[in-house]
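Quiz preparation item.
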């Protein structure tokens, strides 16, 4: 899962980035809004964690720009602002959550999990049913056969997460290359091998494919 972090306080930025990476999230960090905005147009992010008062472009103005271009990416604002007018502005822009400084990193973990669960899985419960046999733990990001955790590599986990977040829609090679391999060059044959390995650990029909469209996981 790709997260963009915008925070100009160095200590906050490093502690948040290191903590989220320890939870196996991929985090790109920025100190000013202009650089962060440019990055959003160059890469797919699943979540934006934005400080509001940052150099060049504020967190609010960054989200305004994205909304005008119909880029609807989940947003968590982190701020020391307490004025109700400032807080209401964020919700009017469509943010998914606020975290007021100072906050514990464990609180951030739970907020991130809740946003991901509600936006990408439309689920209030931790366990998402995929089929009669397979389930997905939306908190731990684990694939289960009934109650047994399926042992997957990091890339296999990321492929499954990418497919699930697209909600039964076909996902192209280019999208998988961007979301899982960070736009690094990788042969389509290598992606096919990764898919084949996931099927070997699950079932031949767990991941469906259609020539010219890509791959998908059908969710009940």
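Solution:
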């Amino acid at each position: 899962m790709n997260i963009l972090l915008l925070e100009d306080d160095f200590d906050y930025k490093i502690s948040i980035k290191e903590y989220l990476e320890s939870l196996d999230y991929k985090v790109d960090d920025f100190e000013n809004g202009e650089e962060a905005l440019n990055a959003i147009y160059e890469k797919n992010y699943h979540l934006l964690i934005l400080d509001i008062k940052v150099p060049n472009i504020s967190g609010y103005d960054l989200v305004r720009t994205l909304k005008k271009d119909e880029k609807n990416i989940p947003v968590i604002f982190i701020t020391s602002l307490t004025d109700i007018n400032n807080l209401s502005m964020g919700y009017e822009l469509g943010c998914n959550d606020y975290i007021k400084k100072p906050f514990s990193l464990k609180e951030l973990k739970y907020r991130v999990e809740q946003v991901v669960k509600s936006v990408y899985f439309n689920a209030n419960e931790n366990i998402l049913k995929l089929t009669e046999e397979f389930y997905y733990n939306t908190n731990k990001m684990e694939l289960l056969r009934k109650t047994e955790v399926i042992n997957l590599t990091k890339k296999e986990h990321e492929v499954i997460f990418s497919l699930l977040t697209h909600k039964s829609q076909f996902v192209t090679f280019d999208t998988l290359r961007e979301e899982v391999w960070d736009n690094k060059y990788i042969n389509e044959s290598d992606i096919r091998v990764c898919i084949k390995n996931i099927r070997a650990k699950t079932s031949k029909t767990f991941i469906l494919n259609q020539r010219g469209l890509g791959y998908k996981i059908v969710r009940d």
